[in-house]
């Protein structure tokens, strides 16, 4: 057996699940200390090893440390966030406005992960019927980076309350390049033990057994062993 085919040890497996369950979207707990270049390089490499349709690798990574650029993005956020608040009225509006939904200037690095929709030419293997597969692939790069960051003790916060055209212009993106994820990265004072939105009473995690169906939408999952095992998996 070659080395890379060896089974994961119990500790290795536990480490992977720990990163998955203890990963958090971070906005309030960033510390300003810089991320060393070799650590950032490991995160970017983890992202670059995500699966992609037809091995398209449609992503680019724009590493932003300029305060000026980050301030411009924060201004875009503030404008969009004011509009977003209008979706709620009464107590929910007050609650929405009390949420911190970005850490653009609190974090030392912002990272825009883009998707070049034309990479790989006019036809990419596997992207014949579902053209959005390039976007899906780029999301997987985001998740790889997010999990690797957690293992490195680095928090990541995704900021999507942004006008994409204004963001693209700020970053000088070519026409065919889509700003898929705007992320804030930095070491943190703590990782919360549950999603911040749940801790703040906005929304709770849905029970997994309600989300696992049988052989079609809405059909009950009949396997009692799976049902019992899912129940055991429930956590914050
Ligand atoms: C595509 C996308 C976009 C956003 C997010 C996530 C994703 C996947 N999330 C983070 C989101 O609120 C968070 O993931 C959930 O609340 C669950 O919390 P944990 O990630 O488990 O901590 C997020 N958070 C935030 O404060 N501002 C934002 O604009 C966004 N936007």
Automatic annotation (TrEMBL):
Annotated EC: 1.13.11.79
Tagged with keyword Flavoprotein: yes
Keyword Repeat attributed: no
Keywords annotated in UniProt: Flavoprotein, FMN, NAD, NADP, Nucleotide-binding, Oxidoreductase
GO terms of molecular function: 5,6-dimethylbenzimidazole synthase activity; nucleotide binding
Gene Ontology annotations of biological process type: cobalamin biosynthetic process
Chemical reaction(s) catalysed: FMNH2 + O2 = dialurate + 5,6-dimethylbenzimidazole + D-erythrose 4-phosphate + H(+)
Cited Gene3D superfamilies: NADH Oxidase (3.40.109.10)
Superkingdom of source: Bacteria
Family the entry assigns: Belongs to the BluB family.
Subunit structure: Homooctamer.
Protein name from the UniProt record: 5,6-dimethylbenzimidazole synthase
Gene: bluB
